[in-house]
Amino acid sequence: MILNRKNVLALFIGVITTLTMLAQGYEEQGHERTSTDFNWPEGKKMAISLTFDDARLSQIDKGIPVLESHGVKATFYISPDLLMQRLDGWKKAALHGHDIGNHTLVHPCTGNFSWSREKALEDYTLLQMSNELDSASRFIEEVFGVYPVSFGYPCGQTYVGRGQQTRSYVPLVSAMFASGRTWLDEGPNDPEQCDLAQLTGMELDGKTFDQILSLIETARESGSWLILAGHEMDDGGVQTSLLSTIDSICSYASDPKNEIWIDHVANVGRYVREQRSVPLHTEMLPYQNPVIPVDRRIDDLISRMTLAEKIWQQPALAGAYNFGPPTNETATVRDVVEMAHNSFGRGEVRYGNGSDGPHEADRVLLGFLADLLHERGLGFFS
Ligand SMILES: [Zn+2]
């Protein structure tokens, strides 16, 4: 269609009308919105979650004992390398009910940080990020026996790539975790409105209790969920949440007369989700659920398909399967993955040092199967 002047004008008027309507709607609701229609449990007025990143050594050595003296449970988004340095302590913390969250494997952030230049988000792809999140979750499952449900974005950054190739990895986090938390945000979460995959995290590091108290009071007025985010837990220093502040927050929030629910992100998030009837990612079929290891997803998916569906009319896939003669119809899933790996283990679908080849082949195969089901209108990733 060629846009003549009349069309352009009609388009312009349409846009203006829409904008005017939106502006009016905004004005009508000009009063400060409150979350009075959201009920926190037991008549509480707000929720607080304490969160700490990176598995810094001071968290185990100094911070967790302070939390535990108040019976307060927090969320810890861990980095595997630091975690391994206090493994026993972390296992104990998890047993005591703290929430152990995924924080990626190598903590990629913008290349503007010189320490992140070799792992800059600008150079990442979604596939790489997906692989890394999966590997970090597998690591946590191996150490603690449970899959993590909470994710903390390293540096609070939610993208991969640069310029026109920039992609958000929020959808990935939304599909893999019950929640994702960002960092250095300006306000708390409205339990009615917040996106659980992008929960705000306000800085706890370096703050006195009085400074935090004013955040708490503001959050209480609107019935919000205040997520505080910190790093070191100590008496002073860079990126450090002060033990005295943490101690005071725990005392204050635990005092029934202040009507605060203090709990970790997984618990508060679950409550918010249930109140709003937001389905959890684990309500997907096993093959749709990225939280389940890829090989188990492939097994589930393949168990739902006929051989004809498997080979479909996808020449590349048919080549990888190389079924055809009946003798090959007994090929196991593992054989198929192996074949896919042999056929598609090309440079462009491999990365890292190549040692994760078979795992990558799983993903390539999954990609083909996803396309296949998409063509049939069945969808794959929700
Ligand atoms: Zn971090």
What would your notes on this structure say?
The protein has 2 domains: 42-275, Glycoside hydrolase/deacetylase (TIM Barrel, Alpha-Beta Barrel), CATH 3.20.20; 286-376, no CATH class. It is 44% helix and 11% strand. The protein has helices at residues 5-28, 57-69, 80-84, 87-95, 126-144, 170-176, 209-221, 243-254, 265-276, 294-303, 307-311, 315-321, 333-344, 357-375, and strands at 46-53, 75-78, 99-102, 150-152, 159-160, 167-168, 179-181, 202-203, 225-230, 232-234, 240-242, 260-262. Strands 1, 2, 3, 8, 9 and 12 form a 6-stranded parallel beta sheet that branches. It has a two-stranded parallel sheet with strand order 4-7. β5 and β6 (167-168) form a beta hairpin. The model is unreliable at 1-31, 311-329, 344-361 and 378-382 (pLDDT under 50). Residues 53-54, 103, 107, 154 line the site of zinc ion (ZN).
Bound molecules: zinc ion
CATH homology group of the largest domain: Glycoside hydrolase/deacetylase
- Gap between N and C termini, in Å? 34 Å
User: Which CATH class of the largest domain is shown?
Assistant: Alpha Beta
Note the run of SSEs as H and E: HEHEHHEHEEEHEEHEEEHEHHHHHH
Q: How many strand segments?
A: 12
Work out the strand percent: 5-15%
Unreliable stretches (pLDDT < 50, length at least 5) are: 1-31, 311-329, 344-361, 378-382
Structural class: alpha/beta
CATH architecture classification of the largest domain: Alpha-Beta Barrel
Rg for CA atoms: 24 Å
Mean pLDDT, to the nearest integer, reads 79
Main beta-sheet strand count, sense and barrel state: 6 strands, parallel
Helix content: 40-55%
Query: How many domains, in number, for the residues?
Result: 2
Number of helices: 14
The CATH topology of the largest domain corresponds to TIM Barrel
The rough form would be described as globular
